[in-house]
Amino acid sequence: MNQPDPMRQDSIYHVFIDRFAGFQDKNNWDQPEFLGGTLRGVIEKIPYFCDLGITTLWISPFYQTSAYHGYHITDFYQVDPHYGTAEDLKELIRQSHHHHLRIIADFVPNHCSRQHPFFKDAQQDKTSRYKDWFIFTRWPDEYLCFLSVRDIPKLNLDNPETQEHIINAAKYWLSLGLDGFRLDHVIGPTHRFWEQFNKKIKSQYPHCVLIGEAWMMGITRQELRTLGVRHKYLKWLSGDSSDSLFKEYIGTLDGVLDFKVQELIKQFIIRKSISENTLRKQLHKHYAQYPEDFLLPTFLDNHDMDRFLFQAGNDKEKLKAAATLQLGLPQPAIIYYGTETGMTQTTSLWKIPSNGDLQARAPMNWDTIDTDLYLFYKKELQKKE
Length: 385
Prior knowledge:
The protein is of the alpha/beta class.
């Protein structure tokens, strides 16, 4: 693959745009609505990233959307006005590069919002040109979606028109200067799609980096029909942090997010269910299965799981131990916004029946930064350079 050589040593900062910077107040942060974070807010924090020692920004989806988090897309070719303008995005890319930061964005090819005009047209007109852009099991109200989330119907990416629409959207954003993508839910589309995606993207942007999210956590047997990954039933049986799942994308993507290492770190630091010797053996066995040019970015937490500090019983020494371990591994390291400033939560997102993930998406704690923890992260990141 053609990922930039220095990427392996990168320190990646995961920005959740709506909750990071630019919001005026924090009221109703625990409700599924726009808080007010913007691309301009991210631009203003570039000195913060540079001081901390970050080398790559990863921004959440900024496309026109029907939801605060950006994953329910209504137009793949427009910046959502809640986040700002296309000029704001261009300025963020320019400023990032000026400060020697790479910048990648979340890209969501598997599904769109049911408020997307193409889906609305497909539901309203049986002869719509967009009907075959989706996978109706019984038109107009039964269709495949992202797992069981009816608000986001699954795109039929084996339809050449749909495929072209999505790949051209990715090319468009790369043309503005993005350095690559974190690809959402890569197990949804088929491998035929990913082969075409990689071929067409890399032929025009050979140095862009493509990192997939291959994760089967919480997926039910019934939801397997929405997945395009090969041997999905066997992958599902083998668990959500499976090397067999990750290895499906060798040769097609530049790498995948390393849920396996995230789980091993939790077992060692939080649960104390494995010894240091076992951890080392497991890490060696894990990395030995991949070619040297396949990236396995590490992370302690993200927007879909409880924050690590909360999982560690708010023990900051455990967080420091985990961060030291993570940043010492020979892979890119991702820091989810606020992990380095002591952000935690009061309730597990898994205990809240609806929109529990908001617990891990609280507004950035700019007014209550844990300075000791921040300085610790800064020092550890200097060692990774």
